[in-house]
Amino acid sequence: AQTVTQSQPEMSVQEAETVTLSCTYDTSESDYYLFWYKQPPSRQMILVIRQEAYKQQNATENRFSVNFQKAAKSFSLKISDSQLGDAAMYFCAYRGGATNKLIFGTGTLLAVQP
Amino acid sequence: DSGVTQTPKHLITATGQRVTLRCSPRSGDLSVYWYQQSLDQGLQFLIQYYNGEERAKGNILERFSAQQFPDLHSELNLSSLELGDSALYFCASSVASGWTDTQYFGPGTRLTVL
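^ inputs. structure came back:
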């Protein structure tokens, strides 16, 4: 069975600094997608970025980028120039060809200090 | 705003009762997914419907059921409610049922069972 692990329950970053959130996963599938979702205090689940496993190039969305290491089964999220609005819970998620569901990690609560 | 709507936003009820949660997918999306977010279980997939048909089942209790109607909106029915059913229930939608389709989440329904 596929699993997703986020080993950092909480992280903190100064405004305008860079922070990296870690995620590892376990799967025997070769094709899959990885996602980062953001859940602010409003509780809405917002898609931040997604990575297709067969693509070598790391995905980037404005200040958000990922470091995808397929062999190591690692998928970290880098947030550059952190803003107060980035404060939220961040969930790493996996979806592979054998299942239609998203498998989520336990989340990392990010605090942004002014 | 993801385009997925859920009603009601909040629901407070008593043990043993039955409630219905409603979800309208994004325009054009044929798949609807239901997830439960609780403190002890995290984010868990419950069930998926595609164009009116059940497509995948996750950790959904027998007391829970769902359906998708011809207009593609979906309802999640929770019966014989227990204190442990208190959670945030999310609906997500995607264009089709393939594993490559990104899921977009609604704002959730907060269920409190007293």
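The two ends of chain A are 41 Å apart (CA to CA). Chain A is about 0% helix and 55% strand.
thumbs up if we can close this ticket
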